[in-house]
Amino acid sequence: MVAASPLDPDAVLWSAPVEERGDRPLLVLLHGYGSNEADLFGLTPHLPEEFVAAAVRAPLAPRFPMPGYSWFTIDGVESRDHDEVLASAEAVWDWVDEVRGDAASVGLLGFSQGGVIALQMLRMRPQGAAFAVNLAGYAFPEPHAGDSELAEVRPPVFWGRGARDEVIPPRFVDHTAQWLPGHVDLSGRVYPDLAHSVSAEELGDVRVFLEKQLAAPKS
What we know:
9 strands; alpha/beta
């Protein structure tokens, strides 16, 4: 596996100052390809305020001329760098280990590439996160050593995607539709008029999902 580039702690956007975090649950926001930490941080007013949201910046730069940051390299329509997926997921876990403090739980919310990382983090530590939200992302097709344990733990996962999304290759969508039900407690929705984006309707569904996680009994 390629060496993980650490996340930049100075780039993280927090919804609450350190003195107000305490044991509140931590929600890690993982942006998409060519974007940055400010993107998903804009969703925080629409999320339950019980969470402390932390929007992190991906550690890699996408290929020129794409701006922003990326979690892994995309080479053409179909090719993805699996080693970078693993390295970036490990880098986020390393950062979480450093900052979570007394947080009651850790949840993951990612868009597109960030959704891939959220699911990969679950596969690496099936009991490390309470849940994941995957928006317009997918499960990477390469098997992982943690997949069998994940299928036993079955953490809650919300998968939302647009029926008009032409960015994610169909084979990744098909694989995810087959793979997720056997490994997680899956809920979600396909939005007929949505492309590669997030809609107000989808945000409402995400909020309901997150509220259910807040109300779920702690094991």
